[in-house]
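To: structure desk
From: M.T.
Subject: fold request, one chain
Message: Could you run this one when you get a chance? Sequence is below, nothing fancy, just the single chain.
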Amino acid sequence: MHRLDCITELLSYGHNIGLILAYGIMEVAMFWQRNNLKEILREIDEMENELFNEINQQNGSKKFQLFYITGIWLIFSSVNFSYLTYFLTGAEVMPICYKCIISLYVVAIEMKFLEYRLYVQIICHLMEGICIALERIKSQMEQFRRPEHERLPYFMIQQLLRNQQLLNRLWLMVYKVNVYFALPLALVCCQNGIAILFTVNWAYVRSLFEHGETNQIFRFVYIILLLLNIVYICNYTEKCMKKYHSLSTVLNNFKLHPQDIEVRMHLREYSLQLMHQKLKFTCNYFLDIDYKTLGKIILAVTSFMIILIQFKMTNGTTGAIVATQRIFGFGKLKL
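Reply: Done. Structure tokens follow.
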């Protein structure tokens, strides 16, 4: 019989118990925010109808593409997370039933990332439509034929105002999505960090008894998958924020006549709105969902991993010394 050291034992209990508690808290929080979710879904449907009727673009192909990408990633994540969690959890000592339960909880928690990413993709899709509509308004204003000193017709100004209102509604929708997913995303990020530390620590401990490299490779793949979920979300949030900032470039490139004073005033108001009303994807301002936060998470997890390995190396037991020799290739150390 082998007894685990205190750090490994604490990480094991913390990971498994925290997994169940995190999932329970997430479900309660989302049930509490169910009315907010109804408002988000209704707003998405209304904005899609208004926006794509205005630009005369079919939305079916985009929906199919969104469904196709999400479906592939759902199958890929579910299969890999369930298999790797089952394979790596309690290799010889844990009952099969318990391993299956842990695997299901891991898959359910990681699916929160997929759910959030789906809403971010929809927001990015709507942002593309607003950009297309604004460029079309710009083109119509510049190509409109009129006498030299005549102003642009009022219906074109109304189109510009509608575009600004759509952007306001989209910004409010982003805020609602941030509030709805605030607690679940924060818990999933913390849980993934703990899972990475737990996996690294367990790889260190198991190196005493595993002479092959298969399990260690599986643990490395598991860590990469945990990080890929965050990377995939950050990719879409950064893409959406870039499109939001590109609206300022379009507004600044309007070519108008000197008498179009009213249009210039509306363009200035629109530009000031974009300057002061920043688009951010956050866990209710607990942390931002972007590449900067991803780098901070990787840095924090790496720091804790280094501290963990150093703690193990300073442990004077035979097991810790043998594990250090096998992993880092040190020569024989004396107790």
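Reply (cont.): The CA atoms of residues 145 and 152 lie 9 Å apart. Let me know if you need anything else for the meeting.
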